[in-house]
Design a protein that fits this description.
about 80% helix; 25 helices; mainly alpha; about 475 residues
Length: about 475
């Protein structure tokens, strides 16, 4: 080889070396740029999620997943998958969340098998898959996944929590509460960030069996554990109301509305508390605000507004609201409209035609029984005797038969379908129409004795009882 050739070869090698170095640097810069793009999408998804834009969050997390997957960044891709699964679940799109969560479970199983991750993380993913299967109605698969999760991690709190949810669906509340308690105990040891969710689940279980004191305590513990969920506030407010702690309920509702100022259910609760306190004007203001927004609770708000007008003695306004929203409770509407028609000089029988209700065709036990009460087919003493049976389970056939025998009601009317406080309310209204003030008060006080504060019948009975006391 000639000296010139050698020099040329050296220059060529140097050139290609430079090209490779520059290409490598360019590739590294490009890779860094794409990874930065993936991080950008992750931040965008998190920002959208914070503002409640779950659809936008899902789009950004999906883009991040694609970027990280293309460049083999498995850990970052798994983080994007977790976020994507979470927002799909928030949107109720469990059919889309499930395949994403299955990918997470496969990734965590591989890591656990290699000994680079805790098996509890894999069990968490299985429990999430089980939850999503449950929400899709795939109960056999739910049970299978829960068994697999508990084999991998016998005390796994998420698996215990989902087990409790399945038991609640089966109406096995005691077993569900035990599962939620196990989840809480283990989550406390592990410092599980989902601890608040488990407390809330147990609070809902306790509320289902009317253990309102523990429901209130657990809902407060859920929020103390960092859970920001209006359901926890709703349970605190409802529990205080059902425990008769109306002032505490009012305070809790005001605090909740500072955190969730636009929450229509909380506003509805506050309006109802005002009704319980017989502050009908303030309740009307709140209900009218709900109605003006045309939200999901507006129909019930219209009905409740009709009740406030009835309690305030404004029968014309009450009739308009009750007729407009009669589908909320057509039977109670009929009862109140009968009272309004009588108060305004209309024939009380006309109300059934106005509502389009044919009692005999419907065979509704409430309407048939209340019609007979209004027509005073029964003696007051017999009706009072029937109400004395309230301490026997009214849902049982024997108690219903006994009540029917005492009053002499048509055997076709199943009184077991009627609540005691509502029966007492209607009897009180009928006695009031008959001018029997003392008897009416006795019936209203019977309705109040139920302490079902959130029920319209309780509020109406309280208002009527107060009105009789003023006369």
């Amino acid at each position: 080889m000639k000296p010139g050739d050698r020099k040329s070869t050296s220059l060529g090698v140097a050139h290609w070396r430079t090209v490779l170095v520059v290409s490598g640097v360019a590739l590294a810069v490009l890779l860094t740029a794409y990874i930065a793009l993936g991080e950008y999408f992750m931040k965008g998804g998190a920002s959208a999620e914070l503002t409640g834009d779950y659809g936008g969050a899902a789009r950004d997390y999906d883009r991040a997943r694609a970027v990280f997957g293309f460049f083999g960044k498995s850990a970052k891709r798994a983080a994007a998958l977790r976020s994507l699964s979470s927002v799909y679940a928030s949107l109720g799109r469990y059919d889309q969340a499930l395949p994403v969560t299955i990918e997470i479970a496969a990734y965590e199983k591989a890591r656990a098998d290699r000994g680079v991750a805790e098996v509890s993380v894999y069990a968490d993913a299985l429990a999430q898959c089980a939850f999503q299967r449950m929400m899709l109605g795939q109960f056999e698969e739910t049970d299978r996944l829960l068994r697999e999760a508990l084999r991998a991690d016998p005390a796994n709190p998420q698996a215990q929590y989902v087990t409790g949810l399945t038991e609640m669906q089966e109406r096995n509340t005691e077993a569900a509460l035990a599962s939620f308690s196990s989840a809480i105990a283990e989550a406390t040891k592990r410092k599980d960030p989902a601890l608040g969710t488990y407390y809330l689940a147990r609070a809902e279980g306790d509320a289902a069996i009317e253990n309102y004191r523990r429901a209130q305590t657990d809902a407060e513990l859920a929020m103390k554990a960092g859970l920001r969920d209006r359901k926890a506030w709703l349970l605190v407010v409802k529990s205080h109301v059902m425990l008769g702690e109306i002032e505490l309920a009012t305070t809790a509702c005001a605090s909740a509305l500072k955190e969730f100022p636009e929450d229509t259910v909380l506003v509805s609760y506050l309006a109802t508390i005002n009704m319980i306190n017989l502050k009908m004007a303030e309740a009307q203001r709140l209900f009218l605000g709900l109605i003006s927004k045309g939200n999901s609770v507006s129909r019930e708000a219209v009905f409740s507004l009709g009740v406030t007008y009835f309690c305030a003695g404004d029968c014309e306004q009450a009739k308009r609201s009750l007729i407009e929203a009669r589908e909320v409770d057509p039977i109670l509407s009929a009862v109140l409209l009968v009272m309004c028609n009588i108060a305004t000089g209309s024939p009380n029988a006309k109300v059934l035609t106005d509502l389009g209700i044919q009692a005999e065709d419907l065979g509704n036990p409430r309407l048939l029984f209340y019609r007979d009460v209004f027509q005073r087919r029964y003696q007051w003493e017999a009706l009072k005797k029937m109400l004395e049976l309230r301490h026997v389970s009214f849902a049982t056939t024997d108690a219903a038969k006994q009540a029917i025998e005492v009053v002499g009601v048509d055997p076709g009317v199943r009184l077991a379908d009627i609540s005691w406080e509502e029966v007492a309310l209607v009897c009180g209204l009928s006695a009031k129409l008959a001018g029997e003030k003392t008897t009416a008060k006795e019936f209203f006080e019977e309705a109040l004795d139920s302490r079902n504060y959130f029920y319209w019948s309780y509020i109406i009975a309280k208002s009527e009882n107060a009105a009789l006391g003023r006369k």
